[in-house]
Amino acid sequence: MSAFEPVRFAALTDVGVKRSHNQDACAAQPAVDAAGFAAQGHVFVVADGMGGHAVGEKASAKAARDIPFLYSKHARDGIIPAIRRAFQEANAGIYAIGQQNPEFRGLGTTSTALVIRPEGAWVGHVGDSRAYRIRKGQAEQLTFDHSWVWEIARRQGVDPDELGDFKKNVIIRSLGPDPEVEVDIEGPHPVEPGDAFLLCSDGLTGVVTPQEVGAVVTAMKPDDAARFLVQLANLRGGPDNITVMIVQVPDGHEKDAGTKAAKTGIFARLWAAWSKRVPWAFTVLGGGVVLALLSLLMQVGAVPGATILFMLAAGLILAGLFGLFQHTQKEEPVSAVEIAADTAPRELNVYKKYDCRATQELAERFARAEASLLESMRAQGIPVDLDAHAKLAEAAKVAAGQSDSAAAFRARCASLLFLAEAFHKARHKEESFRPSWTPSPSSQS
């Protein structure tokens, strides 16, 4: 994705079934033009708070709010230092809250950030909230879970799923508990047209398999896919807060805005390249000096407007001097170590891969879930527009008889989503739908 293109994205966070407070948070900061894309890129963040009630909620909200801002602040220093400093400064802020308020001691949050830039996709990561890249029927996990089970599996050289639920929810790294934190930075992963990225909290991955996640994201639009995945997690008990963020790269079939937009993009890229190398204060100050000299020449030649131009020049010079003062007050420059890390060749880690094609078996699994859910809703007297659902179910049935498996799977998901949203709207906390099917153990690996 070397040129600027707007991405489609959707984000949804839900308290789940068993929890009373939502301690998850997310944020999106997509670039709006070519200059912003070249300088910073598209930025997306998911955070999962820990510490009980408002404590975890406060930590995750601060991480989701601060990391995009801090990354943008440091973006001119290079992608790796910018991501690292964003996480470290967010960690320092959360840690300070815990130290200043005894009731907030121990607050913390996981956080995973995705940055899509011209050279590829970068991931900054602390905790067990995950990032996946979904491409051509395969879901790739781009993050390493900072949990006991994943760490022990790494040391033993085995698949984490082979250890079962052993300390599965014990996090060994997060933002907030300690004054300093180690940040995993992965990238740049190549980005191809049609790629989709998913960020999520463990409220999703704890109950929905990566195969299901990838198939749903591939088959449905981002908004629909996010809603479906949240509702599927809730149907399976919703034991934790659930956050889903989906980012979809255009597949190349959509036309550009035209030649004018392309020319504007070239100018914006040139300006972004200049701004990356020359602080804005020097640019403004230089412009003010040029205008001041021009106004003096106009005054000597008795050209009208010299006074107005001189006043404008004076304003630019003052603004430039103020910006120069701010520039000198900034934090220490990027270290040689950070510069070396930014330019050194990097290993691209894909920690796990899953086949996520929309198979007939998966469609049938969702069809069984739908039939079981409809039966449960009728038994409980939960109101639902049966005529509208019947149309969706019939469309799924017709599509299943055709050769387009993707369309059939998409139609089945739409039909199940209709029922799931009606069911979730009506049910109370601590109540859960108990389906007559469960994913097989092999589907979790």
From TrEMBL:
<feature type="transmembrane region" description="Helical">
    <location>
        <begin position="306"/>
        <end position="325"/>
    </location>
</feature>
<protein>
    <submittedName>
        <fullName>Serine/threonine-protein phosphatase</fullName>
    </submittedName>
</protein>
<dbReference type="InterPro" id="IPR001932">
    <property type="entry name" value="PPM-type_phosphatase-like_dom"/>
</dbReference>
<dbReference type="InterPro" id="IPR036457">
    <property type="entry name" value="PPM-type-like_dom_sf"/>
</dbReference>
<feature type="transmembrane region" description="Helical">
    <location>
        <begin position="278"/>
        <end position="300"/>
    </location>
</feature>
<dbReference type="InterPro" id="IPR015655">
    <property type="entry name" value="PP2C"/>
</dbReference>
<keyword id="KW-0472">Membrane</keyword>
<keyword id="KW-1133">Transmembrane helix</keyword>
<dbReference type="Pfam" id="PF13672">
    <property type="entry name" value="PP2C_2"/>
</dbReference>
<keyword id="KW-0812">Transmembrane</keyword>
<feature type="domain" description="PPM-type phosphatase">
    <location>
        <begin position="8"/>
        <end position="249"/>
    </location>
</feature>
